[in-house]
Specification:
Distance between the termini of chain A: 60 Å
Number of strands of chain A: 21
Strand order of the largest sheet of chain A: 1-6-3-5-4-7-2
Helix content of chain A: 10-25%
CATH class of the largest domain in chain A: Alpha Beta
CATH architecture of the largest domain in chain A: 2-Layer Sandwich
Number of domains of chain B: 2
Number of helices of chain A: 14
Order of helices and strands of chain B: HEEHHHHHHHHHHHHHHHH
Oligomer: heterodimer
Largest interface: A-B, 70 and 58 residues
CATH superfamily of the largest domain in chain B: Formate dehydrogenase/DMSO reductase domain
Chain lengths: ~525, ~500
């Protein structure tokens, strides 16, 4: 049995931090609590395995863990890739004295940890109890199903086939002049900048700090365990984690991560289905969300192939924190705050929340004053930190004065996720400027679009992941082809690394805008 | 019937029958159809016009039967539930329902499409069958149109309340405003607003227009002043003069002409809500015709579910005859088979497209986590109507009733399959999730039944449920060429 400091709570010091509680663990994608981790095989052997059928509120066995006469109760989670016959317990949860947020989250693993065996202990006994327990997991499906969402190669393959990334593309749709030309093709000629992002999957380690950075920058609310289990978490950027290979074998799988956020498609499927013009394009290539105009049909989310749009199902910013744990939010018709019926409070002042006034005043300090706080019924999503873009543009205009040099120089500002990324995997900038860092990254041969065949022309592109297996390692770790590639080849019968693979689609880099440096 | 048989027997050996009428010059010689082509009359038992008026108007005039109250009270309670759920929803947020990532539309849209599909039979019967001179429509068109209107009302609730900020729902209408922003006309939801509101308006007009002569009948038969005044108010001074009838017939024809394209357009446009998007399982060109066929299928299913018990309860078996039920069963069979063909074609195209995402969406329908919904749909929509090939089934009323209910269940599942199964596993596997309704979803749906049946039961009690004037026109007596008809003399 292994005791480890929790990825988010550390030793428990961040237990009352809502951002941390709601941040999914980078691998298990668990929120709001810790679990007893064991390998799939071990869980099956002990009869504790639960098949994840993408069920919300997945129910797992609640077990008793006994170690040298001490005991603790917790839920079991079968973790692909964990070594067989090991159990991992995260510390830092189950605090009895904590704030409004940390209450009732997880179990306290310190109870069975002793000074003698403070990191690794042997001889633990697990007994199944009659109870079960539901968990809130943000990603229910682990496999990539052979789809070229994340594209991988080994270093050797890359050296032989440097253009492999686009060889995963599906056939190009036949070229024809569209009945309804995309108005953005004209409009972008007016933009001074063309914003874009490049994410290097070789650098991304899935640490998730971009998620928290984004949450704090953009006033993204936390929704509580129950709403996470309803798939209603609000993170604008998320880390998709896939297991490739055979999850039943302890050495059988590889884990890949992909930050997923609004792709700012030039031909955005979300825009033409909105009945009220609430999501539109600006000349600089941003897919902007007009909160004021949104009525919340949610059609945009259904039509978003990347499913990066987030909907305010409740007034998350106004409800009292006790309601975080759910399950059902009280209606203002019956709930009262500070001794006053919520309906009357709303009638007197619609801008006041249904929170006790101390909480209300305190939580105001949490907000970024540059960013709108969204109300219920409104769709939201990544804005490429438009407030920072605008701030930089205004500063540049002031500086430019009469000279008219209003193009923001590369590297003047960063988006929140880019700023927080310790691996510098995320790079944002002006793609109309061929000298900008992002343009150079996009010009690399590893560059590809997710779901290229939809022709959405995303402004967020990815650099394919390169693996470098160590030749001295045993066979499982010294593979010729990444598992994801094997799955892709098996499923689609396309072989991106064979000599005669077809002409890479979208091989010609697109040129952008009339911005200063456009070629 | 017995007269017709006698008449057959009395035809001359040459196979010709001579009919002469007063005022006619010479003799018209008619080829009498062979016995197997003799049609059953539209109105059984040679009921006289007077009997028809009494029987139909009597439904709204007699003492309220006990069964009516037994149906009405639960309906009103469920209608109250419907409105309570709306209030709860509005005060708290759309989150009281089940949707979440990636299934952002749940029961609300399923119910919307389901109800609007049901609302198809009415206009089809009243308009298209009218233009095609299908006379059997007269016995069922009034009730079917009423059903249409109430079903569209139930349908209309859902798109309105499912939006996040209902108080801004009016932004979907092209109302001149100070923002200087129009609705976004490329969005199918926008087209939906126009399609559904037009359909509702025309359906109401058509229904009301057809009602005017009958309301005048009710006015003339009224035994007290309040009834006389109220029916009189809505009868708009109808006197039954030739001029009135002439105008009426013209207006009816025009409205029928206007409604006919609407029958096809409404559900086509509703289907565009799905097919315009690029989601596998939604993005298909087969949707418009397939949706229209499905809508007519479910509409006739609902008409059968309503009229099969009602003809018994209201003693109208002579007007809504077994032949009517049989004919409706045949329409159900035909449209059900089109729907079945469409299901097959969807799979074929998914395979033929060679697009792995498209293929997966359909394999997932049949074998994924929601396989039960898919197979419930196939059973109810493809297998069940095939029973209507058999005359024994079509003429067995309790069996028709059960099968028609199954048709409606199947059509609900069809929308479930389209909305939920397509969304729950789309392009990027990391997004895949599961949708589950909440108790509010379920009560909201059941609540609309309360709304529907409250209106329908009130309709039965206050309005003639069969078009009195029209149904008289299809009696044998009204047909000059019929042995019993006016041309034989004696019925002027």
């Amino acid at each position: 049995m292994i005791f480890h400091r929790d990825y988010k709570m550390d030793d428990g010091r961040f237990n009352n931090n809502g951002w941390m509680q709601e941040l999914p663990d980078p691998i298990t994608k668990m929120t709001w609590e810790n679990v007893i981790l064991m390998s799939v095989q071990t869980a099956k052997k002990l009869g504790l395995y639960t098949e994840n059928r993408e069920n919300n509120r997945i129910r797992v066995p609640w077990v008793r863990m006994a170690l040298e006469g001490r005991e603790v109760y917790g839920p079991v989670w079968a973790q692909p890739g964990q070594a067989d016959n090991t159990i991992a317990l995260a510390l830092g949860y189950g605090r009895t004295v904590t704030g409004r947020i940390g209450k009732f989250s997880g179990f306290d693993a310190y109870k069975i940890r002793t000074a003698k065996a403070s990191h690794v202990a042997v001889g633990a006994k697990i007994t199944k109890t009659a109870d079960d327990h539901w968990l809130a997991v943000t990603q229910d499906h682990g496999a990539m199903e052979g789809r070229p969402i994340i594209r991988e190669a080994t270093l050797k393959q890359y050296q032989e086939h440097p253009k492999f990334a686009t060889a995963f593309n599906m056939e190009d749709p036949p070229a024809f002049s569209p009945l309804y030309p995309n108005p953005f093709d004209e409009a972008k000629k007016l933009g001074h900048h063309q914003w874009g992002m490049s994410i290097d999957l070789s650098s991304c380690v899935g640490c998730s700090s971009c998620m928290v950075a984004c949450q704090s920058e953009n006033n993204v609310p936390i929704v509580g365990k129950y709403q996470v289990s309803n798939n209603r978490e609000m993170h604008w950027i998320r880390i998709d984690r896939y297991y490739t290979g055979d999850p039943d074998k302890e050495d059988g799988i590889q884990v890949v991560n992909q930050p997923m956020l609004c792709q700012h498609c030039e031909a955005a499927p979300c825009e033409n289905v909105c009945p009220v013009n609430a999501t539109v394009h600006d000349q600089e290539g941003l897919n902007v969300m007009v909160y004021n105009r949104c009525v919340g049909t949610r059609y945009c989310s259904n039509n978003c192939p990347y499913k990066v749009r987030r909907f305010n199902f409740f007034d998350y910013n106004r409800r009292p924190l006790e309601q975080l744990s759910g399950p059902v939010y009280t209606t203002p018709l019956t709930h009262s705050t500070d001794g006053e019926l919520d309906l009357f409070r709303w009638w007197k002042d619609p801008d006041r929340g249904n929170k006790p006034s101390d909480e209300w005043e305190l939580l105001k300090l949490l907000k970024n004053p540059d960013v709108t706080v969204r109300m219920r019924g409104v769709m939201e999503k990544c804005s490429y930190c438009i407030q920072r873009i605008e701030g930089a543009k205004i500063a540049q205009k002031v500086k430019a004065g009469a000279s008219g040099d209003v193009i923001v120089p590369d590297g003047t500002f960063k988006t929140a996720c880019q700023q927080a990324c310790p691996a510098e995997a995320i790079v944002f900038g002006n793609i109309a400027d061929p000298e900008s860092r992002v343009s150079k990254l996009k010009a690399q041969d590893r560059n590809y679009n997710v779901l290229d065949f939809l022709n959405t022309k995303p402004r967020t592109t990815y650099l394919a992941r390169i693996r470098n297996p160590n030749p001295d390692m045993p066979e499982e770790y010294n593979y010729k082809t990444a598992h994801s590639t094997e799955e892709f080849e098996k499923k689609n019968d396309i072989h991106p690394f064979e000599e005669e693979h077809r002409e890479p689609a979208h091989a010609k880099p697109e040129t952008y805008g009339s911005g200063k440096g456009a070629s | 019937m017995s007269d017709a048989v006698t008449h057959q027997a009395s035809t001359s050996p040459s196979g010709h029958d001579s009919i002469s009428a007063p005022g006619m010059i010479g003799t018209i010689r008619l080829q009498a159809p062979p016995a197997e082509l003799q049609r059953e009359p539209m109105i059984a038992h040679q009921r006289s016009p007077g009997w028809l008026s009494d029987a139909i108007a009597g439904v709204a005039e007699c003492k309220t039967p006990l069964w009516w109250w037994l149906a009405f009270i639960p309906s009103v309670i469920m209608m109250t539930v419907c409105f309570s759920m709306i209030i709860y929803l509005l005060s708290t947020g759309v989150g009281v329902w089940g949707p979440g990532h990636p299934v952002m539309w749940g029961w609300a849209i399923i119910n919307f499409v389901w109800w609007i599909g049901i609302g198809h039979a009415g206009t089809l019967i009243s308009a298209i069958l009218f233009l095609l001179r299908q006379k059997w429509r007269t016995s069922i068109n009034r009730a079917a149109e009423a059903m249409t209107i109430f079903a569209v009302m139930c349908a209309g609730i859902f798109p309105l309340i499912h939006i996040g900020r209902i108080w801004y729902g009016w932004w979907l209408f092209p109302i001149p405003n100070s923002f200087g922003i129009w609705p976004q006309f490329r969005s199918p939801l926008m087209w939906d607003v126009f399609a559904v509101s037009t359909y509702f308006t025309v359906s109401v007009l058509f229904w009301y227009m057809g009602l005017i002569p009958d309301l005048a009948v009710m006015r003339d038969r009224a035994k007290n002043k309040i009834r006389k005044f109220s029916y009189g108010l809505f009868a708009l001074g109808w006197t039954g003069s030739n001029r009135h009838w002439s105008h009426y017939e013209k207006a009816y024809l025009i409205l029928a002409g206007l409604s006919t394209p609407l029958v096809l357009s409404v559900h086509s446009i509703v289907s565009l809500d799905f097919s315009v998007s690029q989601l596998p399982g939604w993005h298909t060109t087969i949707f418009p015709p397939y949706f229209v066929a499905g809508a007519v299928f479910s509409g006739f299913g609902m008409v059968l579910s309503l009229l099969v018990p009602l003809r018994r309860l209201l003693h109208l078996e002579d007007i809504i005859t077994v032949r009517h039920v049989e004919l409706m069963c045949k329409v159900t069979l035909a449209t059900g088979s089109i729907v079945g063909y469409a299901y097959g074609m969807e799979f074929f195209i998914a395979w033929y497209s060679g697009n792995p995402y498209e293929r997966y969406a359909f394999i997932n329908r049949a074998t994924g986590h929601y396989w039960w919904a898919y197979w419930a749909m196939i059973t109810c929509n493809v297998v069940v109507p095939q029973f209507f090939w058999f005359k024994k089934v079509r003429t067995c009323m309790w069996l028709v009733f059960i099968l028609s209910i199954l048709v409606n269940i199947g059509m609900w599942f069809e929308r479930f399959v389209i909305v939920v199964i397509s969304l729950h596993r789309d392009f990027i596997p990391a997004n895949w999730g599961y949708f589950r309704p909440t108790w509010v979803d379920i009560m909201q749906y059941l609540g609309t039944f309360g709304l529907f049946f409250t209106f329908f039961l009130l309709f039965i009690r206050f309005v003639p449920i069969i078009a009195i004037a029209e149904v008289k026109g299809v009696t044998p007596q009204a047909d000059p060429h019929h042995p019993l008809g006016g041309a034989k003399g004696g019925h002027h």
